[in-house]
Structures are given as structure tokens and as C-alpha cells.
């Protein structure tokens, strides 16, 4: 059956909106600064931008403030806002191999050329609540941290750009050769996602997928509900330059800024080719900001979708349609909105069934009595 | 200076202190009539990335940008920058138009822009130097026992 609209409730809805604002502020004596959210809630901002599909740190911070910290609601706000804007440019292909790295590790190769750099990470910290943060003074804390971060003079002019491990493997013939013909990517913001989906469509859907959903699905694959359990060939986090074509001279390009990205290349398995050569089977993840778990989950899921089998993570419709934050949260939360006609019709069907059942029983009793007579 | 590529110029203008942009674009404003062709407005840039596995491109998401177009004597200049930065986008467009139309003053900007570029490199190097201190060389337990 179709949907039936409801009417009325305008005053109550307006009051509910005001109440939301009241609950956002009532127990505080100051309003959160958007700037503070943007710069000190880095991980949340990265997540919201990624799931909203829009790199806009300041707007993500406003969305987080407006949504009282709910990443799903914030991603929804960001994606809704995005739909009001014109898209006037496409970037030149981003080159993570040229990124200014702040972190680069490999769990497969101990001695990757250029070395491993831990950078900012929680990987090796004790999960102990730091009560000092309660009364943290920004300037004092920053000065203390900078005192601890000594700089070796010989590193002062070191450029932290590294060749990708994949490129090194490819040069050694350990990774299959690429298709030299570049194909136009699928764009799910302009075209309806249909199945089977192209690889570019899958990657786009995964890149803006919800971190938690993707992590859960990737975890299921690791635990045995699937065929993918990789090691990390390389994980890098850093600033990648973004440029567009210069409109008045096709030979020139215009730098428009840099954005932080996390890129992951996983090594899934080895393949013995017909010619006897062994090549690695890789997985790929690339996401906005520093969001390592999501990038790894993306690499696991995209490879899982390349395999055949009956586990949920090998079903592209299941994976790609259920990892979208806005779709999933929107659909589940829409159940709170009035469904009176839907529910009433279910009750009508139930009552009708009851009536038929009662009448049937009566008839059976009558027939039985009739036989007795 | 006219040899400076648009990529290099725009990188300096995107990253430099806004006061420098105000200063030099202000000079252009006094020397030439600036016509605003498209006032600063926010729009989107779709980010194209390359998948390492297939080496084929895919779209990873969009970035919010502010863009502005101006002209000097019918010669256009453009400013596009990530984020909501209307003032910077306008100043960038004026400077770009000044270069394109060949205002003589642009020769005087060279030293300022190169100094600003050097500041950017220094800032980035400082960050990289701090990050470098977390370089790690894990030993496997076998190697550790061999050494001790």
C-alpha cells in the first residue's frame, strides 16, 4: 500500500524543536566553539566528513554541534547541505604516493624502503582515562607536548614523501600489471547504483560508508564469514594536494588546498599464474581524514566482493546498500514517524482474519451437531 | 615571475597569510578596475582518486570550495580554495587576473611570494621533523635474542 500523509501538530513540532535546542544548552554555561570541535574532535570530524561524502571540516564541526555529537545526524546534515550546491569542478587525480606523510606503517614488511613512521596513533597506548584533561590548560599542555617533541636537526629538511609499497611490488613483478586504458568512473551521486556494480562504484560506496557498519562486516569476514583475512602491506596517513584544471589554460593546473587522507593497501593472498609466476592479491582503501579502521575495512570488503561465496560480505547488494549511514539511519529512524494507516490496515486484516476464523469454527460446530442429529 | 606556474602561484596564495593577499591584491585594485564576474560562492569539487589495485580512477567524495572570478580589462582571473573562504577566493582571483593581464606591479610581488613560499616549506618541514621522530624499527623476537 502507499503512504498516507498526516496533518496537524505544527505547534507541537515547533515546541519539540525548541526543546531540542534547550536540551542542547540547558546544563552548560557556555556554547561550544565550532573551531574547537573542528580542531579537537579530529576523529569525529573525519568520520562525519567521510560518511557525509563531503570534505568540509568547518561545516562538519557545525553539523556535529547541531546534532549534539550524533555522527549519523551530522553526516545527514552534511549530505543534505551538499545537495544544495553546484558541482563545478572535478579534481585532477589525487596522488597519495606524493602525500606529506604523518604516519606510515606496514604489518607485512618490517623494512619498507623509507622506513615506518608511527605518527599520531592510539595503537600503542594504554586505554587509561586521563583525568588531567578535566582541567587542561591549552597553552600549558601544548608547551609541554612541544617540549617532549624534540627535533633532530638532521630531520629539519627531510621530506616525508615515500614511494608506495604497491609500486615497489609492481616493479618487482609481484603485482599484476594494470590496464593502461583509463575508464570513466561510476558516480553514485549522479547515477542509480545497480547490480552488478562496477569496481569504481563499489569503491565510491565504500569510501563514503559508515565506519561502524563497515567495521562490523569486515570483522565478520575476518572471523570466518568470508574469505578475506589480509595483512597490511602499507597504511599511510597524510596530506594530499588537490588541484583542478586551470580554466583558461589547459596546460596549467590550480592548487586548491590539501586534505588529510588515509590510504590502505592490504595483501590478501598469493596467486600462482599460468606462467608459474606468483603475484600478490591486493585490497585497497582510501578515505577522508585519519580513519584507519574504516580504510582497512574498505580494503577487506572490496576484496571480499571480488570473491565468490555465500557469506554476507561476498554479496555486493547486501554490503553496498547497508553501509550507507544516511540510508540506514534514515530508514530505521523513519519507523518513529506516524504509521497509523499502515498499522490500522494491519489491525483490519487481523480482525477480518479473526472474524473469518470465528465464523469457520461456528460452521464446523454446526456441521458436527448436524451429523450428531 | 611570469614564468611561475599557476600551480605554484595558487599554492602560495592558498597557504599564505591572508594579510599578504590583501596587501598585493589591494595594490592591483588601485591600479586597475576590477570587475567581479562571479562573486565568491561555495560549490563542490568531486575528488578523483586512483585505486592501486586496478589503477583505475574512482570518485571518493566531494570537497567544499569557494570560487570567485574577476576580470581586468576583459582578462579573467580565478580563485578556488577548499573551505568557505570568500575573501581569500576574491583576493586570489584579483592576483591571478593581474598576472594574466600583465600588470607591471606583479614583478614587485615576486620576492614577497617566494618568501611566503619559503615560510610554508619551513612550517611543513617542522611538522615532518616532529613526525620523523616517531620512526620505528621493530625487531622480531628472533632478531632480538640474536642481538642479546
Describe the structure.
The complex is a heterodimer of chains A (373) and B (148). Chain A folds into 2 domains: 10-82, no CATH class; 96-130 and 160-330, no CATH class. Chain A starts with 9 loop residues before the first helix and ends with a helix. The model of chain A has no long low-confidence stretch (mean pLDDT 90). Chain A has 13 helices and 7 strands. In chain A, strands 3-5-6-7 form a 4-stranded antiparallel sheet. The relative contact order of chain A is 0.13. In chain A, helix 3 (42-52) packs across helix 4. With 373 residues, chain A is α+β, with helices and mostly antiparallel strands. In chain A, strand 6 and strand 7 (278-288) form a beta hairpin. Chain B has helices at residues 6-15, 18-31, 86-101, 106-132, 141-147; strands spanning 34-50, 57-72, 75-82, 135-136. Helix content of chain B is 50%, strand content 29%. The mean pLDDT of chain B is 93. A 3-stranded antiparallel sheet of chain B has the order 1-2-3. Chain B starts with 5 loop residues before the first helix and ends with a helix. Chain B has one domain (6-129). The radius of gyration of chain B is 21 Å and the shape is elongated. Chain B has 148 residues and is α+β, with helices and mostly antiparallel strands. At the A-B interface, strand 1, helix 4, strand 2, strand 3 and strand 4 of A face helix 1, strand 1, strand 2, strand 3 and helix 4 of B. Strand 4 (116-117) of chain A pairs antiparallel with strand 4 of chain B.
Defining key terms:
heterodimer; A: 373 residues; alpha+beta; B: alpha+beta; 3-stranded antiparallel beta sheet; 50% helix; elongated; lyase activity (chain B); lyase (chain B)
* Oligomeric state: heterodimer
The share of residues in helices of chain A is 40-55%
Number of helices of chain B: 5
How many DSSP-defined strands of chain B?
Answer: 4
Order of helices and strands of chain A: HHHEHHEEEHHHHEEEHHHH
Amino acid at each position: 500500500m502507499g503512504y498516507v500523509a498526516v496533518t496537524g501538530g505544527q505547534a507541537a513540532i515547533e515546541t519539540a524543536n525548541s526543546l531540542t535546542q534547550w536540551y542542547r544548552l540547558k546544563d552548560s554555561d557556555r556554547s561550544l566553539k565550532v573551531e574547537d570541535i573542528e580542531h579537537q574532535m579530529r576523529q569525529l570530524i573525519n568520520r562525519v566528513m567521510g560518511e557525509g561524502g563531503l570534505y568540509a571540516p568547518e561545516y562538519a564541526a557545525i553539523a556535529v554541534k547541531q546534532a549534539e555529537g550524533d555522527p549519523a545526524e551530522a553526516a545527514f546534515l552534511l549530505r543534505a547541505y551538499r545537495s544544495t550546491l553546484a558541482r563545478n569542478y572535478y579534481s585532477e587525480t589525487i596522488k597519495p604516493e606524493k602525500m606529506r606523510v604523518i604516519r606510515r606503517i606496514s604489518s607485512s614488511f618490517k623494512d619498507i624502503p623509507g622506513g615506518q613512521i608511527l605518527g599520531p596513533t592510539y595503537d600503542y597506548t594504554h586505554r587509561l582515562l586521563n583525568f588531567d584533561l578535566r582541567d587542561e590548560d591549552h597553552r600549558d599542555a601544548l608547551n609541554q607536548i612541544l617540549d617532549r617533541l624534540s627535533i633532530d636537526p638532521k630531520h629539519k629538511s627531510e621530506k616525508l614523501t615515500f614511494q608506495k609499497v604497491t609500486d615497489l611490488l609492481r616493479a618487482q613483478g609481484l603485482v599484476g600489471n594494470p590496464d593502461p586504458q583509463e575508464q570513466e568512473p561510476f558516480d553514485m551521486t549522479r547515477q542509480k547504483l545497480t547490480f552488478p556494480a562496477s569496481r569504481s562504484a563499489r569503491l565510491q560506496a565504500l569510501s563514503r560508508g559508515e565506519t561502524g557498519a563497515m567495521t562490523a562486516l569486515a570483522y565478520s569476514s575476518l572471523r570466518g564469514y568470508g574469505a578475506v583475512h589480509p595483512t597490511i602491506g602499507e597504511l599511510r596517513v597524510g596530506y594530499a594536494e588537490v588541484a583542478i584544471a586551470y580554466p583558461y589554460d589547459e596546460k596549467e593546473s590550480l592548487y586548491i588546498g590539501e586534505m588529510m587522507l588515509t590510504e590502505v593497501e592490504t595483501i590478501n593472498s598469493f596467486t600462482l599464474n599460468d606462467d608459474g609466476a606468483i603475484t600478490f592479491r591486493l585490497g585497497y582503501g582510501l578515505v577522508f581524514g585519519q580513519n584507519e579502521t574504516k580504510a582497512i575495512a574498505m580494503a577487506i570488503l572490496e576484496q571480499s566482493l571480488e570473491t565468490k561465496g555465500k557469506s554476507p560480505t561476498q554479496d555486493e547488494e547486501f554490503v553496498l546498500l547497508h553501509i550507507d549511514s544516511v540510508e540506514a539511519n534514515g530508514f530505521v529512524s523513519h519507523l518513529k514517524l506516524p504509521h497509523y494507516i499502515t498499522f490500522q490496515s494491519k489491525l483490519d486484516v487481523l480482525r477480518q482474519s479473526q472474524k473469518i476464523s470465528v465464523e469457520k469454527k461456528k460452521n464446523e460446530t454446526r456441521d458436527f451437531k448436524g451429523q450428531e442429529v | 615571475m611570469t614564468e611561475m606556474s599557476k600551480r605554484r602561484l595558487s599554492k602560495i596564495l592558498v597557504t599564505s597569510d591572508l594579510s599578504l593577499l590583501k596587501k598585493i591584491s589591494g595594490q592591483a585594485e588601485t591600479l586597475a578596475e576590477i570587475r567581479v564576474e562571479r562573486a565568491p560562492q561555495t560549490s563542490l569539487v568531486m575528488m578523483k582518486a586512483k585505486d592501486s589495485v586496478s589503477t583505475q580512477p574512482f570518485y571518493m567524495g566531494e570537497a567544499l570550495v569557494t570560487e570567485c572570478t574577476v576580470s581586468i580589462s576583459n582578462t579573467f582571473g580565478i580563485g578556488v580554495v577548499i573551505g568557505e573562504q570568500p575573501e581569500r577566493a576574491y583576493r586570489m582571483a584579483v592576483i591571478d587576473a593581474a598576472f594574466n593581464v600583465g600588470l607591471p606591479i606583479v614583478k614587485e610581488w615576486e620576492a614577497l611570494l617566494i618568501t611566503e613560499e619559503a615560510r610554508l616549506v619551513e612550517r611543513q618541514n617542522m611538522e615532518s621533523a616532529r613526525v620523523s621522530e616517531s620512526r620505528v624499527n621493530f625487531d622480531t623476537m628472533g632478531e632480538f635474542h640474536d642481538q642479546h
